[in-house]
Amino acid sequence: MDEQEKQKRLIAYADGELEGQEKLAAQEQIVADPQAAEAVAYYTKLREAVAKSVKDSTPSMPAHLRDSITQLAQQSDDAPVIGRIGPARFMRWAPAMAAAVLVAASVVIFNQSQNQTSPGASTVPAIPVIAMNKADSERFSQRHAACTSMRELLHQADWPTNVNELPVALTGHLGASPYKGMDLSKAGYKFDGAGPCMAPGEPSAHLIYRPVDDQNQTPISLWLRPDDGRYDIPENMTHQVNTEGSSTPIYIWRHSGIIYYMVGDSMSHVMEAKSQFAD
Known about the structure:
alpha+beta
């Protein structure tokens, strides 16, 4: 497959148009190539910003923000090389672009939230990749699929149904304190059950969050396990697992003595959900 075809596949993946083997091939490309991951994140956030511009009324916007989105549309040299937007593909978003200049603000705000410090930068940092053996990654994928489909497989009667009670219950089960704030409603998710789970090892817990009303979002699984030093990664830095053959993305980070494993179909949804946890 030549570079142009790879680019088209990444754009289709960001638009949620791929299924089956095509989706798997795109995910393998993203895992293997940090530049591809950067490009998909760029496409995804731009598409979400455009969609938001259709829904929201927009006040007048400073000229420098209008210029930001204009540069994106004109295939700015600052955009990810593999992920530049071809003219034909970009035209599908053009009416929404004309509808509101909020796109510019959305893109700029996202870049700022990702700690973009270099002048004029409009790229999104690629998520680093970490290795996990195939059996472990398949176990996470299978448990995620099963427990989000059949809630009764997960929830335990003596576990809280109120998200505000989660931290205390998890501390008792894990022997380590998780985030004090685990409400992801601002990211569009509601807590929908928890229980003990052996997927990451003993002791561990499995939590499920479901989208509130966005049909484009899918459930998220979150596992917590005391940090046993198995992953030598910086505190709070999200890593994507090299899942080799699995079609379900898995993300890992460390925080205050606990390892978090999050499974979700969309990288942007996972990163937004993670940003809502609070101490």
